[in-house]
Design a protein that fits this description.
single chain, alpha/beta, seven-stranded mixed beta sheet, 7 helices, 13% strand
């Protein structure tokens, strides 16, 4: 019962925070110095809402911050995906990035505004034209074509979330990295078992979501995609607890 309440509060904060955050940014943008609307959404609205959502459920411990590339360096953040909590926890990177997500999320209240105004990459999984457009957009953001330094991309290479199995990684992230010769930063997100049913925040918790940032994997045009995918998967899963 308590777990269901936390899921409801999490989603309420996510939907309403995204909506009101975007509306507020639209009003104040003429009076503040930000380079673009999507930058404001990525760097301020999303980050604040993501952290508020996660705060409902428990603390987040970030390990390996020293492995993060410079903010001016484009890269691909590749993480495992087991729960919607992964999305909120990812904002503890304190970095701006573009999500790759299924297009249907634009119909979620508030979240759709974030995805559109934030200029994230939306994908119809069964549409070849959509996949082609996704790669074109990824090339744009990972290069300096966007008017400055490239912008990182955050992706869950599994393609879908799953807590019971360690799903194999798909090719998308690695195609993007090789095409643009940008490093892949493996990220491990470890969520304690039965996390939703914890009585936090009413009772302090000794458990936390642990985000481990691993050393970047260098990528060139000549990098073998299969080996890259295998290496990234091995690194991501290396610090996660065994699957029951």
């Amino acid at each position: 019962m308590f777990g269901m309440l936390k899921v409801y509060i999490y989603n309420l904060v996510w939907f309403s925070g995204s909506f009101f955050g975007c509306v507020a940014l639209l009003f104040v943008r003429p009076f503040i110095n930000i380079s673009s609307l999507d930058y404001g959404v990525n760097a301020f609205v999303e980050r604040a809402v993501g952290k508020m959502c996660t705060a409902v459920c428990g603390p987040v411990e970030v390990r390996g911050v020293e492995n993060l590339p410079l903010e001016s360096e484009p890269c691909i953040f590749a993480a495992n995906h087991a729960s919607q909590l992964d999305i909120g926890a990812s904002y503890y990177l304190d970095r701006r990035y573009k999500w790759i997500s299924k297009r249907s999320v634009v119909y979620m209240p508030g979240v759709g505004m974030v995805m559109i105004l934030g200029r994230h990459l939306l994908l119809d999984r069964k549409g070849k034209s959509s996949i082609k457009r996704m790669y074109e957009q990824a090339n744009y953001w990972l290069s300096s074509q966007n008017g400055g330094n490239g912008c990182p991309i955050f992706i869950f290479p599994q393609g879908t979330r799953c807590m019971s199995n360690r799903l194999p990684f798909k090719d998308g992230a690695f195609n993007m990295a090789i095409n643009n010769e940008v490093p892949i930063v493996p990220i491990s997100l470890s969520i304690p078992n039965n996390w939703w049913n914890d009585f936090y925040p009413f009772v302090s918790s000794k458990r936390s979501i642990v985000m481990t940032i691993h050393k970047p994997i260098s990528v060139t045009k000549d990098t073998d995609k299969e080996r890259l995918r295998e290496e990234c998967s091995k690194v991501v899963y290396s610090v996660l607890p065994p699957v029951p």
